[in-house]
Design brief:
By secondary structure, the protein is α/β, with parallel strands linked by helices. It has 9 helices and 14 strands.
Length: 312
């Protein structure tokens, strides 16, 4: 079990850095996200935040320099990723884990930033799975407010008002463990690296976007064969956006049913119970969730209660 600790709370008016360690930002979306987060914090943004190198927000060396600069800056009290996309795994070996351990600060992101949250956990500091700047304009206002609240208030979120249903092996009762929220593909891709998520005794909260049902099967099966699901006590399935085969036409409503069915079948095969329908992921619902928080899944009531906050 990880011994990662909570970073200190952020205070309104503190400096919060916005970093682009993955894909390049989309200007209009990014500007609106800055407006929303800038209502509560003083944002520090690099002059070249709009840099681009193909599908990356600049060369690896520049992304490392930017992120390490914020890790080492005592005035910066939290770091929010500008967006996900791809690229964070490329720079993990160069990030300054010692700086984060010496001056803990919340790292905020989801999707590709799952790798960053796992990296921070291995460095001894818990992060926050939550919308990034580029995504804030698309999610519910309550999720934006909850993100800011979790950064400043150490109180645990408590029982989440989510409508969920049973999935996986038939079981009752409760399952308690360390909640690890993240992207399925990233959990799988981190297997065998120094930053593989420590899932022993955990409750996984998994979301995904754009993966065909058979690919979801492949990722889950890989995690199982690698032993990465051996200590998992329950899986909570979040948003499965655009996970159909063939892809749906733009005018068709999304259908998470086929992908959810794959989760159900695989979880039954692995003997893992859980819930589905958590409003966490790439859709218009992305409730912020503290990484590594103690949580309880109630399989009789189809609820989850989060017992730790995101900050101390």
């Amino acid at each position: 079990m990880s011994s990662a600790r909570l970073p200190p709370r952020v205070r309104e008016g503190d400096v919060v850095a916005v970093a682009a360690p993955a894909g390049p930002v989309t200007e209009a979306w990014f500007a609106r996200g800055l407006e929303l987060m800038g209502e509560r914090f003083v944002l520090r943004v690099a002059d070249d935040i709009g840099r681009r190198a193909g599908y990356l927000a600049g060369p690896d060396a520049r992304r490392v320099e930017e992120f390490n600069g914020y890790l080492r800056d005592p005035d910066v009290r939290a770091i929010i990723c500008a967006r996900g996309g791809y690229g964070i795994m490329r720079i993990l070996p160069e990030l300054d884990a010692a700086a984060l351990a010496a001056d803990p600060k919340p790292i905020v992101g989801f999707s590709d930033a799952t790798a960053l949250l796992a990296w921070a956990d291995r460095a001894g500091v818990r992060g926050l799975h939550a919308p990034m700047i580029n995504k804030l304009k698309d999610v519910r206002a309550e999720d934006v407010a909850a993100l800011a609240h979790l950064l400043v208030d150490p109180a645990p979120p408590g029982k989440m008002a989510w409508t969920m249903a049973d999935i996986g092996v038939d079981a009752g009762g409760t399952r308690e463990g360390r909640l690890l929220p993240g992207n399925l593909a990233l959990f799988a891709h981190l297997v065998g690296t120094p930053w593989q998520a420590d899932t022993d005794g955990s409750l996984l909260l998994i979301e995904e976007i754009g993966e065909k049902p058979y690919a979801i099967d492949r990722y889950l099966t890989q995690l199982h064969l690698a032993g990465a699901l051996r200590g998992v006590r329950a899986i909570v399935v979040g948003e499965l956006v655009g996970c159909t085969n063939p892809p749906l036409a733009p005018d068709q409503p999304d259908d998470p049913g086929p992908a959810t069915a794959v989760f159900d079948e695989r979880m039954r095969a692995f003997g893992i119970p859980g819930l589905c329908g958590a409003p966490v992921g790439h859709g218009s619902r992305n409730a912020p969730v503290p990484w590594g928080a103690r949580a309880v899944v109630d399989l009789d009531e189809s609820t989850i209660e989060i017992l730790d906050g995101a900050v101390a």
